[in-house]
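To: structure desk
From: M.T.
Subject: fold request, one chain
Message: Could you run this one when you get a chance? Sequence is below, nothing fancy, just the single chain.
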Amino acid sequence: MDKFPIILTVYNRPLHLKYSLNSLLKCEDLEKFKLYVFSDGPKDKDQLKNVQEVRKILNNYKNKINIEIINRKKNFGLLRNISQSLNFIFSKFDKAIIIEDDLIFHSKFLKFMKKSILKYQNNNKILQISGYSYPLKNLKNPYFAKLSSCWGWAISSKKWKEFSKFLNNKSDQITELEKIKKSKKLIYLFNYGGSFDYLSMLKKHLNKKINSWGIIFYLYMFKSNTCCFFPPRSFINNIGFDGSGNHNSRSNLFNTNQKPFIEFKLPKKIFLSNKAEKEIKEFFKRDLSLLSKIKRRINEKFI
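Reply: Done. Structure tokens follow.
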């Protein structure tokens, strides 16, 4: 029987990778999974040393994890490396877990992800499973929300392939953008009840001012009227907010303080949680407002 696939894309952060793999080693049922690592090639000579160090670390874990390493000869870049890695795995498997090299995992992360994707993979209302949860204070049960997640997530092959067509069709993306722009109601809904300006983020991506495949994933979720399944406590902590990542961010506000694990059951019915939605909107408005961003940027200059 094939091991359950985990997809990991890496580039030039050896220290982050080591911390991440060490936390993965502590996950329960790891022996039931196989890790497929796609190591991107260096952009230039300056990155060659870090890429070589990353690959050296990966080779050192061959006796600890069931691992297959695919080394790119050339630099694919973030989006191409992720999309082609998923396309390759989904030509062989019908579902997978996708992780990044700056994530630290709770010991029950893999068990939650596998159990959840097996339960919901054929439900057309659910696009993906998230191992991350927003920093919500008053939630004891898992929840469904119309928000996408890229910190440790799972998706079925069928749903990825459907999204991939949209990802590769900029004309369809622009059509959806124009449709949203014409309706105040759609703008409000796309901006998650007016709590965060996703529309501006989408415009910047399509105008090549930023590079964020995640906003296209969110757009597709909005277009397809689907949602994401989240745990009540985050199984993920991100250590990439040190300026080293693709977006050079030093903002750590999405991470949550580690809380004790709580037992919970996977819901039989799919419903959007009003309680979770309210807390997420409050979090967005409080911590992602323009004033909050200005304050963080000022603080980051002194870090």
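Reply (cont.): The mean pLDDT is 89. Let me know if you need anything else for the meeting.
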